[in-house]
Amino acid sequence: MDISALSNITSNYIKNAALESGQLTVADKGFEGVLQSAMDMVNEANDAQNKVEEAEMQFMLGYATNTHDLLAMQEKADIALNYTITVRDKMVEAYKEIMNMQI
Q1: What is the DSSP string of 63-101?
Q2: What averages of pLDDT result for each successive group of 10 residues across the chain (103 residues)?
Q3: Which of 6, 24, 40, 102 has the fewest CB atoms nearer than 10 Å to its CB?
Q4: Residue 50 exposed, middle or buried by CB count within 10 Å (0-12, 13-18, 19+)
Q5: Residue 23: DSSP 8-state
């Protein structure tokens, strides 16, 4: 899966996306709010992965027969995981850049 389109994600992009989606309020514009938004995204990706594992078990046991729904859930979880990894990498990169600043 190509995620090269996600290479230009900055902290402003994340903050604006969180503001637009309603995960942040006007009072939460600080770093704490952005970090909480990122942690919520991690939790959502984890929930998606858990749902996929449960659906796969149901399919393997023969309780579910719809492969289309299973594949859609797998793709959604994969996209959420890849996006979360990209945001994590950008946050680590920003942290390293801040740590290398001269005072």
Answers
A1: S---HHHHHHHHHHHHHHHHHHHHHHHHHHHHHHHHHT-
A2: 52 68 62 80 91 93 89 92 90 89 82
A3: 102
A4: exposed
A5: S
